[in-house]
Amino acid sequence: MPSVTDADFERVRALVASIPAGRVATYGDIAKAAGLTNARQVGWIMREDSADLPWHRVIGASGRPAAHIAAEQLARLRAEGVLSVDGRVPLRERRHTFL
DNA sequence: AGATTGACTTGAG
DNA sequence: ACTCAAGCCAATC
Fold it and tell me: Is A84 in contact with A77 (CB distance < 8 Å)?
């Protein structure tokens, strides 16, 4: 039954909400933690509901946010204490694993 | 039902 | 390190 249900939706939201300030997670990690098969579904969910979530803590595997929101994310992350170098976040230090 | 699109990822050149 | 292509899966036309 690989389709995105309300449960998946909520699960992703919970995971994103659980990312502590000053940390970031990749779409792939969230997908894996949420039990989704691929990262694109996470991206899709985020696009649908980006309102009440810290979506700025979610970035691509390249350590770089999606192009449309890049400026916003970098600004917000910088405000949270994440030092973005040359428009990208040092995943090696900032990547949050969901234990 | 088939084609297109996309807040992704990985690997090759 | 950067760009390009293909793989991926679900939603939307």
Answer: yes
Q: Where do the domains of chain A lie?
A: 6-94
Verify if strand B has an atom below 7 Å from the CB of A39: yes
* Nearest nucleotide over every DNA/RNA strand to the A53 CA, judged by C1': B7
Cβ neighbourhood burial of A57 (10 Å; 0-12, 13-18, 19+): buried
* Rounded percentage of chain A residues whose pLDDT exceeds 70: 98
Confirm whether any atom of chain B, the nucleic acid strand, is less than 7 Å from CB of A38: yes
Record the pTM: 0.93
**CATH architecture type of domain A6-94:** Orthogonal Bundle (1.10)
Give A53-63 pLDDT, tens digit per residue: 999 999 999 99
- A42: CB within 7 A of chain B nucleic strand: yes
